[in-house]
Amino acid sequence: MTLPAPTDQTFVVLLGGALQPTPRLAADVAGARVVAADGGMRHAKTLGVTPEIWVGDFDSTPPDLLAAWPDIERQPYPVAKNETDGAIAVSAATERGAKNIVLAGALGGERSDHALMHLLHAVSLEEQGFSIKLTSGEEEAWPLLPGSREIDLPKGSLFSVLGLSPLAGLDIGNVRYPLTNFSLPFGASRTISNVAEGAIRLSLASGRAILIARPYDLSGA
Fold first, then answer.
1. For residues 48 and 29, what is the distance between their CA atoms, to the nearest angstrom?
2. Residue 114 pLDDT > 60, yes or no?
3. Considering Cα of 174, then 177, then 180, then 183, what sign does the dihedral take?
């Protein structure tokens, strides 16, 4: 399933990675509350949103960006801290009642360590009961945990399932290369580069994974 319709429990967290405006991203943002993490504030103007709080150590925020948003509540932290600005921003969202969280700017960018950390953090948050989506606009990702779900993707779009552990009882349906009750060893590439035939049906008996999709890449059509 995709994220529920926006409510006051749906938050977008603006992170520092690449972000390309797309219709799907606009739908994710519409009606949501917004928190900005440090340099992720640069995406606010592009998306036409006004965050309710801006957190971080502000080491990635140039003076002109600070000057452009003088009225936003700021919550500064020292550079030497125990969490990333992104993790602090997510905490700010959950403290305000977030249940559904879109991590915008979580994929790509200059820091692959941060991008990987966002993916791992997303899985941890999903395990805690939050509904998480990561996006760069052009790419989207969802944690996959034991259970069943659907993810709505355009027909012909590319996607991959990356196992973060051995996977057992993996079903992937309504795709070009379906799998049923499949066991994926950790590190295996069998589930890379599949093609959606529309909304993907997924089921997993055990393990942890990430689904990464390219909804505007219809090269598999």
1. 9
2. yes
3. negative
